[in-house]
From TrEMBL:
GO CC term (a single one): cytosol
Name under which the protein is recorded: HTH cro/C1-type domain-containing protein
UniProt entry keywords in alphabetical sequence: DNA-binding
Keyword Transmembrane helix: no
GO molecular function: DNA binding; DNA-binding transcription factor activity
Organism: Lactobacillus johnsonii (strain CNCM I-12250 / La1 / NCC 533)
Annotated HTH cro/C1-type domain residues: 16-71
CDD domains according to UniProt: HTH_XRE (cd00093)
The keyword DNA-binding belongs to this UniProt entry's keyword annotation: yes
Length: 129
C-alpha cells in the first residue's frame, strides 16, 4: 500500500531547514533522527517543492521536535523571495544568460547592476543563517 503523498507545498524545504538550524542540527543529525538519508534531507531543503510522503514528513517533524501541521504552517510564512533566490542559485542556465546579458551593457550599468546583485545575495545569505 502506498502512503499518502503531500504534493508541492511551497517553501516546505525552507521551513524544515529553518527549524533544523534553530535546533542547531546538521542535515546529518536530522537524517539520523528521522531514519532518512542525508541526500533526501538535502534534496527536500534545496528544492522544497517536491512530493514527500506523509510518513517521511512525520519522521522529519518528530526529529525536529514539532508537528507536520507546524511545518506546513511555517512553510506558508516563509517569504517567497528566499525560495525564488534558492531556485535561481541552482539554475546555471539562467545565471549564464544573465552574465552574458550584463556583458552587453555599458560598463557603468554593468558595475551598478553587479553591485545590486551582490547586495541582494548578501541580504539573503544573512537571512539564511
Amino acid at each position: 500500500m502506498k502512503g499518502i503523498v503531500i504534493e508541492v507545498i511551497d517553501n516546505l524545504g525552507a521551513a524544515i531547514k529553518k527549524r533544523r538550524r534553530s535546533l542547531r542540527m546538521t542535515q546529518e543529525d536530522l537524517a539520523e533522527f528521522s531514519s532518512l538519508s542525508v541526500n533526501f534531507i538535502s534534496k527536500i531543503e534545496r528544492t522544497g517543492n517536491q512530493n514527500i510522503s506523509i510518513q517521511k514528513l512525520d519522521a522529519i517533524a518528530k526529529a525536529l521536535q514539532t508537528s507536520v501541521i507546524t511545518l506546513i504552517d511555517e512553510s506558508s510564512k516563509t517569504p517567497e523571495p528566499q525560495a525564488f533566490a534558492s531556485k535561481l542559485s541552482n539554475d546555471r542556465v539562467f545565471l549564464d544568460k544573465l552574465t552574458n546579458d550584463m556583458k552587453k551593457l555599458p560598463v557603468e550599468q554593468e558595475e551598478a547592476l553587479a553591485k545590486s546583485f551582490i547586495t541582494i545575495i548578501n541580504t539573503f545569505a544573512k537571512e539564511d543563517k
